[in-house]
Structures are given as C-alpha cells and as structure tokens.
Amino acid sequence: MTDSRTSSTGKRRGRAMLIMAVCALMWSIGGIFIKLISWSPLLIAGTRSLIAAAIIGLYMLVTKTPFKLRGYSVGAGIGLSCSCMFFVMANKLTTAANAIVLQYAAPVFILIMTSLIFKQKLHRKEIITVAITMAGIILFFFDQLSPGNIIGNIFGILAGVFLALMFVMTGQARNDDSIRMSGILIAHCLTAIVGIPLGIPGTSSVNGEEIFFLIILGVFQLGIPYVLYAIASGDCPPLACSLIGMLEPLFNPVWVALFIGEMPGGFALAGSLIIICAVTWWCINESRSAPEDSC
User: Fold this and answer.
1) Of 183, 93, 96, 66, which Cα lies nearest the Cα of 147?
2) Which candidate, 1, 25, 75, 242, has a CA 20 to 30 Å from the CA of 170?
3) Where in the numbering of this chain does the EamA domain appear (predicted)?
C-alpha cells in the first residue's frame, strides 16, 4: 500500500514538473512577439492581458475557485499589473535578454522588501545573494549606453521590483490559492483597463498579422501558462517550480536570437549568468533551510 501511494505521488509530481516546464517554455515566447508587434507597449500589455483575464476567469469559474477581493489579492494584482506593463516597455527599449533577466531578479527584491517593510533581518547568505545580484545588474549598464537602452534596463528592474511585490503579497496570504488566482485576475484586468486606453494614442496602425501575434501572446504566453502554473503548483515542490521557471529567462533570448537576430552584449550576458546563478543558489539554500517555503 505504501509503495503504491509513493508511486502515485511520484507520478503526480513528475507530471506536475513536466507541466511546469511547458508553462515556463510558453512564458518564454513573449520576447519574440512583443518585438514583432509595432503597437505601443501599453496597448500590447493591455490587450494581451484582456485575453489572458478571460482565460483565467473562465478557469476560476470552471474550477469553482472563489474570487477574493482582499488587501493581499489587490496588492498582488497591482504588483503583477505594473510588472507586466514595465516588462513590455523594457522589451521595446532594450534587448529581450536584458528585460527578462532583470525581471527575474525579483527574489532579491523580495529579500530587500521583507527587510525594509517587515523588518526581517537578512542573514549572511541573503546579503551575499543581494550583493552578487546587484553586481550582475550593474553589468547591464556597461553594455549599451544609448538613452533608450538605459531606460529599458531601468524598466526591466522595475518589472522585477513589482513582480517581487506580487510575491510578497501572495506570500502573506500563505497557501490560499484563491488569493493568488484572484490577484492574477485582478492584475490582468487592471493592465487592460490602464493599458488599452493609454496605449491607443501611441499606436498608428493595426494589421491582421499583429492581431494574430497578440492573440498568441494573450492565449499561449499568458492565459494558458497561468492555468498550467495553477495546476502544477499543487504537486510540484516550490523549489522545483522556481528552478524550472528559470527556463523562461534562459530560452526567451534564445528564441529572439534565432527568429529576430537580436543578440545581447557581452556585459549583459555576464550579468545574466551572475543573476541566474545567484538566484538559483539562493532558492536551493532557502529550500534546504525551510522546505515548506517558496522562493
């Protein structure tokens, strides 16, 4: 009986990890299509979030996940909404590699936020992680010093800061999946409400191909992956989710390089390697010290 239960648990975990890998790979296609759409960044962000919100709302309806308008879900929604908008703006102004890796520095911003807001003392390994990651971020600014790229890098950092805010808010709600899913739905609704009206004046033309690319972003890069993440997170350990999620910053610039020919500079590549290694190291150590916590 024990062996059967263990085998069943192992199969569920393996399936969840596979779903999480598919989810991360689907997230990673964002850079390609954002680059291929000529619309203003806010219109891209707002329209893809409108499509994603419909899919996530339908999933919550089918699974009977209650919508909770609470302080933590609203805070998470604001954080993720701002992250989505800054991420698209960063993709338009700097390389896709810079945008995604700077956003993925979010765990370090989580450490800083919990220290400043909740007065949690940073331990030595956390201080080391913050210092190494910040050093990696600085390298991005040695690469392409045109005003647009500098602003794009700053937007990438802000995307990471607001993504960290989302994680901090959902973390305070503990393991309440309805708070997390409600926050995601609020985020995409807010992004649509803000992005579409503000983005329309900055968009000069719309064609069928770009609408098709936008549908791909809304359905396959945001909507379905968030549903897959919700399914996977039930059986996939937090550390595995975090590490498998690293496929996104690894593959995002690869797709852009293959299909568009955009290559990050040498300093940015070095910074990317430093940030990904530092965040991975911290996630592993955090899991060992507190297996039940998510990084």
Assistant:
1) 93
2) 25
3) 16-141, 151-280
Is residue 292's pLDDT more than 70?
no
Q: Residue 240 and residue 18: Cα distance in Å, rounded?
A: 10
Can you read off the two tokens belonging to residue 250?
């690894």
Angle between helices 208-216 and 41-62 (to 10 degrees): 50
Q: List alpha helices for the chain, DSSP H.
A: 2-27, 30-36, 41-62, 71-93, 96-103, 106-117, 124-140, 147-172, 177-199, 208-216, 224-232, 238-245, 247-259, 266-289
Residue 175 CB partners (closer than 8 Å, separation 6+): none
Token pair in block for residue 133: 């990651």
How many residues appear in the chain?
295
For residues 47 and 192, the answer to whether their CB atoms sit within 8 Å is yes
* Mean pLDDT in residue range 167-188: 85
Give Dmax (Cα) for the chain: 65
Whole-angstrom CA distances from 112 to 6, 12, 71, 210, 266 are: 39, 35, 21, 39, 28
CA distance linking residue 250 with residue 263, whole number of Å: 13
- Dihedral angle at the C-alpha atoms of 9, 10, 12, 14, nearest 10 degrees? 160
Instruction: Measure Cα distances from 98 to 143, 152, 155, 188 in Å.
Output: 10, 8, 10, 23
